[in-house]
Every structure is written in C-alpha cells, then in structure tokens.
Amino acid sequence: MKTKLAILFSLALLAPAFAQDAAPKGDAANGKVLFTRDGCYQCHGTQGAGASTGPALTQKPTPLPWVAFQAEVRNPVDAMPVYTPKVVSDQELADIYAYTLTFPGPVARSATKGILDR
Fold this sequence. Notes:
Layout: H1 2-20, H2 28-37, H3 40-44, H4 66-74, H5 90-100, H6 109-116
Helix pairs in contact: 2-5
C-alpha cells in the first residue's frame, strides 16, 4: 500500500510538468496547407514517412511530444532550417504539429519485405 501511495504522490508532483508538454490546440487542416507551403514535405514526405533528406515523422503509437517537436523546429540540431516565430508563428506550428499527428504509422517491415529486399 505504501508503494502505491508513493507512486500516486510522485505522479501528482509530476503532473504539472506533463501538462506543460501538452500541445496547444492546432488545426490539422490548416497544418496540411502549411506543411506544403513551408516545404516540410520536401524532406519529410507528403505523409511524413521521410525522404532522402529528412527523417520520418510517423512515430505511432508514440508521437514526438510537442515540446520536442517545437524545440527541433525552432532550434534544429541537424540540417533542418531554423523556423523562427517570424517565419512560422506559434499557432501555425501548433497547426503543423496537429497535422503530423494525423499521419499513418510507419509501414510494417513484413509489408515491404518483397519490395525492399530485391
């Protein structure tokens, strides 16, 4: 019983930190328009499956958390261009994030075996 109580207490203390990670409300339909307008598809593919220059954004069942997504777009650690709030507003970024959450999951290895192993 003490262990369960300690776990619940710990979760209660951590809850505010998790709440801060919640993405702002975004419009996925507008995010799709912005994903195309801003050229995201050129590196990440039209459905976020990745391309020769950008990684896949299809990370189901666990998508990239909002804070990590925002940090990567605003201050990328790789070859991705920087998208400051002057280029993509916070609301537009939330819309793009909402759109990425609609991407289908990655293709299962068994579904591609015959095609990729030739």
